[in-house]
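quick q for whoever's on today - can somebody do inverse folding on this one?? i tried earlier but teh output was garbage lol. tokens:
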């Protein structure tokens, strides 16, 4: 809602950048006005405190926004507490930035009058009805949001005061037309190149690595061999599908169910229909009159089939005297369906209108609905009863699972005994390689939670799927750390061999590059004309290098570039200007550059204010 109030800001880009500033204030809510206090604040900015209550409210608002935006993806991301902590830290930095701007605005004497606030509220579309301010609507929206009018006006005052400072900065940014056009022309360039890939694979056979080299690499690059935090779990699982396999259903139970629900096993009546169709065409009144005339002829004893052959515009059925097909209730257009199932065998209807035109319908024959024999549906009934018994058993055991795992929280043995299942275990796993059977965000979050890892307690009941739950507990836990040399020795040796092969490929590429520069004709290169930046049929490293090379003059520019497994020699023969640059592209680039410049201005302002401020993040101790 507050975003809309910024519609009067200077320029589209200014409004976009101001989202960063104003939303953070809106997320923080009204706690600052209500005087929320905490013994240890989340941060202090030049002596002004940002309370933990403010931070928590802003964090929860940001989390809700991201959850709505990312959906199921956020559920997976939020299983990692470190990810959530990073979000909280970014929210805190945003609150610090808000406080810095508030202080700078106050120091500059920026103010917003009551009249300006009233004008802004009255011009807010959310508070208007038919384009005019509606006080009842205004009050209703504030009540819905949980704001008192005075509190909301205070928020508006801070919001609008901030905008005086930020809009003056980001609203003055601009991009020259020639600047955007030049960038568009650069992006539209193509290049004529020739290239040769020197694969490292042939050089691998001659690569050799000693244990000492492996050890030296391990010692100097231990940061590459960090093992993530891992855990193995014990868990008790309840799945209604497993119970269904063992559920016993007698023939008597199945028969009783069939008798009680017999109406479910009656096949629908079917009717064989014929019709005469007169399409509406361009003159609907004339079509209806023709259909009514045909109906009168039928009433006077005319032959339906003959009239259908001579008059029906449904050519396929007309050849068969209007005969269509067997229909169950609800298949045809509702009007057609109602008329057909109201007829007696051999009767015809009056004129019936549908989207296709005007029909006269005749009932040719009837197949009465029949009861499906018990033997034909017995297997289906047994499966249904098995599932019902399984679900009943599941819910009974789930209640016991929840109670026992909570009452005896330091073991799953008692829980497993009560619900009659075995305790299952997992191998060691990290957040990134969870066993498939438990790879659900809620399970991962619980597995690495303080309750399970640090306190060693059973988790709550976690739903994997409908009627499928688990309770987990920690079996073994390894903190993140450096993997032993023995575990990574083979990988290091292969990496060092690949490095040697790549170096040999680089030397070969350098040799070939010298030959190409000298004009050698025995070096075969692959030619590619009008290579674009987004080319998919050439290695991305080659494309990137081609567009970094300077424009050739009298002779080609030749260079090399490293690939994933080897090197490439590249000869740049020609730089082609963009064939066309549309005004739409130039305008789009102007907007993008303006946004980038404005964002840089805003971030520069915050960095400047922060560099000259005393920002303190107290730690409880």
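ok took a stab at it. sequence:
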């Amino acid at each position: 809602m507050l975003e809309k109030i910024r519609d009067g800001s200077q320029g589209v880009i200014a409004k976009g950048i101001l989202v960063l500033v104003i939303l953070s204030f809106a997320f923080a809510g009204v706690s600052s006005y209500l005087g929320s206090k905490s013994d240890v604040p989340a941060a202090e900015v030049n002596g002004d405190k940002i309370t933990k209550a403010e931070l928590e409210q802003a964090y929860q608002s940001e989390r809700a926004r991201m959850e709505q935006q990312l959906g199921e993806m956020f559920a997976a991301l939020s299983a990692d507490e470190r990810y959530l902590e990073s979000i909280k830290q970014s929210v805190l930095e945003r609150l610090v930035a808000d406080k810095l701007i508030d202080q700078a605005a106050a120091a500059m004497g920026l103010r917003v009058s009551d009249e300006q606030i009233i004008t802004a509220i009255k011009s807010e579309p959310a508070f208007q009805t038919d384009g005019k301010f509606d006080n009842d609507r205004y009050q209703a929206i504030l009540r819905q949001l949980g704001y008192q009018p005075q509190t909301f006006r205070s928020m508006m005052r801070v919001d609008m005061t901030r905008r005086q400072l930020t809009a003056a900065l980001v609203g003055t940014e601009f991009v020259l037309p020639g600047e955007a056009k030049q960038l568009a022309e650069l992006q539209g360039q193509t290049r004529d190149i020739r290239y040769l890939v020197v694969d490292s694979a042939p050089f691998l056979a001659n690569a050799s690595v000693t244990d000492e080299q492996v050890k030296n690499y391990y010692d100097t690059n231990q940061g590459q061999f960090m093992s993530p935090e891992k855990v193995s779990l014990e868990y008790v699982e309840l799945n209604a599908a497993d119970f269904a396999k063992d559920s016993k259903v007698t023939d008597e139970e199945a028969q009783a169910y069939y008798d009680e629900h017999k109406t479910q096993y009656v096949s629908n009546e079917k009717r064989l229909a014929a019709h005469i169709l007169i399409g509406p065409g361009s003159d609907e009144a004339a079509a209806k009159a023709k259909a009514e005339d045909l109906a009168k002829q039928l009433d006077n004893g005319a032959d339906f089939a003959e009239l259908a052959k001579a008059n029906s515009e449904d050519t396929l059925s007309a050849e068969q005297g209007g005969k269509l097909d067997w229909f169950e209730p609800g298949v045809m257009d509702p009007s057609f369906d109602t008329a057909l199932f109201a007829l007696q065998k051999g009767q015809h209807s009056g004129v019936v209108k549908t989207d296709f035109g005007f029909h006269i319908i005749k009932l040719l024959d009837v197949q009465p609905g029949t009861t499906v024999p018990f033997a034909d549906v017995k297997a289906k009934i047994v499966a249904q009863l098995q599932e019902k018994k399984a679900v009943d058993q599941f819910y009974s055991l789930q209640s016991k699972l929840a109670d026992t795992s909570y009452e005896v929280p330091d073991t799953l043995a008692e829980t497993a005994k009560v619900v009659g299942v075995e305790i299952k275990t997992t191998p060691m796993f990290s957040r990134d390689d969870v066993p498939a059977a438990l790879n659900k965000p809620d399970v991962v979050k619980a597995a690495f939670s303080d309750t399970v890892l640090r306190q060693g307690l059973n988790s709550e009941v976690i739903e994997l799927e409908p009627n499928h739950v688990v309770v987990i507990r920690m079996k073994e836990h390894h903190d993140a750390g450096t993997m032993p040399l023995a575990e990574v020795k083979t990988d290091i040796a292969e990496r060092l061999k690949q490095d040697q092969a790549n170096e040999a490929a680089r030397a070969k590429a350098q040799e070939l590059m010298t030959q190409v520069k000298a004009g050698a004709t025995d070096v075969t290169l692959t030619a590619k004309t009008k290579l674009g930046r987004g080319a998919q049929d050439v290695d991305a490293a080659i494309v990137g290098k081609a567009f970094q090379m300077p424009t050739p003059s009298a002779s080609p520019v030749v260079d090399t570039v490293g690939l994933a497994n080897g090197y490439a020699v590249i000869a740049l023969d020609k730089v082609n200007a963009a064939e066309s640059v549309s005004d739409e592209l130039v305008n789009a680039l102007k907007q993008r550059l303006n946004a980038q410049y404005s964002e840089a201005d805003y971030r520069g302002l915050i960095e400047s204010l922060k560099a000259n401020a005393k920002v303190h993040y107290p730690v409880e101790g």
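fwiw DSSP finds 25 helices and 19 strands in the chain. also The first helix runs from residue 2 to 5. so keep that in mind when u check it
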